[in-house]
Structures are given as C-alpha cells and as structure tokens.
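Entry:
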Amino acid sequence: METRSITQADYLEIVSVIDEWWGGPTTALAHPMFFHEFGDHALIVEDEGRLVGFLLGFVTDKAPRVGYVHLVGIHPDRRRRGVARALYEEFARRARLQGAVRLKAITTPGNNGSVEFHRANGYDVQLVDDYAGPNRARYVFTRDL
C-alpha cells in the first residue's frame, strides 16, 4: 500500500465511490476545498494503483494547532486491514511537522464503528450535546501528539 497526498485529480474518483462506501448520500462532505486548498494534509491510500482509502483533513492555524480529521473513507473490501490506521498515522506525522499538538475528529451518535476505532487508537471520546447545533450531539475524539 502507498499513502500519498491527495491531488485535484483524485476528487472525481473519490466522489464517484463515497456514497457506495458510506452506504448513503455523503458526496457533499467531500468538499472540493479539500482537494484544491488542503491537498498537503488530505491523504489517499492506493494498493497497486487502486484507491482503497482516503482521509480529508487539515491543520488549524490557531494556537494550539490541531490536526482535524474531517472524513475518512475505506473501500468496503479493505476494512479492518489497517488502511484507516495507516491514514491516521501518516496524517498525525504530517500534522506534527506542521506544529500540531493534538488530533481531533467527530462523528454522529450511532456510529459505533468510529467510536470503537478511535478508542482502540488512543483517542479520548466525549459525547458533546449541541456540538453541531441545537439537539445535534456529536462524539468528539481527541488525542495528544
């Protein structure tokens, strides 16, 4: 497997598979800004030239700097094989180089797979009421670098 920075050319491939990989309409979350503006932080994993996973994220510029993971997609046939872990490890390495001292991600209640993944990878997990607006709780994952 090879992990590399996302390019603008990767956008069309990702939006063509994201709804299938996520099991529902998610294309809007793969905003073009991640490809045009945050390409140095967003990552893709390929196996023999075939897309098997991606991570859309960025490093904040306010102190303390945080590496924020916005969206991760893993090919359904490649789950539980270390693809997400590889993406997170490379993202953490790059975020550290940019001065980040912490990683952060969120998910919706009910996404137990995400909660389990983050706990298994050393993240603190907190359910925050109204995080995404009134009556829109989110699990917030944080891990110091």
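Strands lie at 2-5, 43-47, 50-59, 66-74, 102-107, 124-128, 138-144.
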